[in-house]
């Protein structure tokens, strides 16, 4: 196949707490993008929201290597649609829904899927300890709109709750407190509606799959999970249900916990990490798809 006359801009950086991770994803995309296939591939660094309008001029396609607020929440997607520039990944609605963990959990629960119980608080005054006790301890306390396990706390007793919520509210307008479910942490990568091999995750650093585990080499052990057929079918079915009901497009990563033979849905990632240590390139490779082909497919399916 010859060169496609298309100028691709790899957008990275942004304004969220995941800015540094975004630069890592962007650098990896730039490194592995097939230069023989596209007319030009250029890096586009975003430092402020207003940068977008000026810096995307002249590109034919925006490959989003952004994460978190402004990158993953539908905001930049809306701006690019206004400018008539196609972009990689999910659309405005799906991005906005999936960025909100509590809203995502509400939708998947209504679809008959299982998710750990949760509550949300927007201020320290809202904390209801009776409500918390119903969840039981330990709990996870984290930003409702964040990612990459930034400001995520594993809280084991009531006395630690207020300080954890206080820290989370420095990063986000809302804290989500989620019931702890013990089990195997897995991730399910879906590309264009097709469910790829499931990966099982075990942190080598820290007590859960935190920021350090995700982005340090050998921070976690990630391997293709070989579950018995009935359980694997439940994972595939849950992934396809979420893909449809959350209006996903092109690619997405669903995180779950397997406990007692049941997949508990944790969250959906509409712009998951694309670093060498990231999960979706590993899942793609397990299916025989190398990184450059994965990037090509993301562009192809985004343009459909």
Task: Describe the overall structure.
There is one protein chain. This protein has 3 domains: 85 residues, Rossmann fold; 140 residues, 2-Layer Sandwich (D-amino Acid Aminotransferase, Chain A, domain 1); 62 residues, Dna Ligase, domain 1, CATH 3.30.1490. 34% of the residues lie in helices and 25% in strands. The strands form 3 sheets. Strands 8, 9, 10, 11, 12 and 13 form a 6-stranded antiparallel sheet that branches. The chain has a 4-stranded antiparallel sheet with strand order 4-7-5-6, covered by helices on one side. It has a 3-stranded parallel sheet with strand order 2-1-3. The model has no long low-confidence stretch (mean pLDDT 92).
């Amino acid at each position: 196949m010859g060169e496609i006359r298309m100028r691709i801009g790899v957008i990275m950086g942004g304004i969220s707490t995941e800015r540094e991770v975004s630069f890592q994803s962007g650098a990896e995309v730039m490194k592995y993008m097939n230069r023989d296939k596209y007319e030009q591939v250029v890096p586009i660094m975003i430092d402020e929201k207003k940068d977008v309008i000026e810096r995307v001029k002249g590109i034919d396609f925006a490959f989003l290597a952004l994460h978190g607020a402004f990158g993953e929440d539908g905001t930049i997607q809306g701006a690019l649609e206004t400018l008539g520039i196609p972009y990689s990944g999910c659309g405005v609605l799906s991005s906005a829904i999936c960025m909100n963990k509590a809203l995502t959990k509400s939708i998947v629960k209504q679809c008959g899927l299982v998710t750990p119980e949760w509550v949300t608080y927007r201020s320290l005054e809202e904390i209801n300890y009776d409500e918390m006790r119903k969840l039981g301890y330990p709990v996870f306390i984290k930003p409702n709109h964040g990612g990459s396990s930034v400001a995520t706390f594993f809280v084991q007793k009531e006395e630690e709750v207020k300080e954890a919520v206080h820290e989370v509210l420095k990063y986000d307008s809302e804290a989500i407190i989620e019931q702890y479910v013990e089990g195997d942490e897995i991730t399910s990568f879906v590309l264009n509606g097709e469910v790829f091999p499931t990966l099982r995750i075990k942190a080598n650093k820290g007590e859960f799959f935190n920021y350090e585990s995700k982005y340090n080499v050998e921070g976690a052990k990630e391997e293709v999970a070989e579950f018995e057929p009935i359980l694997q079918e439940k994972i595939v079915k849950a992934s396809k249900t979420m893909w449809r009901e959350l209006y996903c497009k092109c690619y997405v990563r669903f995180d779950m916990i397997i406990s007692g033979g049941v997949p508990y849905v944790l969250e959906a990632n509409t712009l998951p990490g694309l670093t060498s240590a990231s999960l979706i390139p590993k899942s793609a490779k397990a299916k025989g798809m190398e990184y450059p082909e994965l990037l090509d497919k993301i562009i192809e399916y985004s343009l459909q």
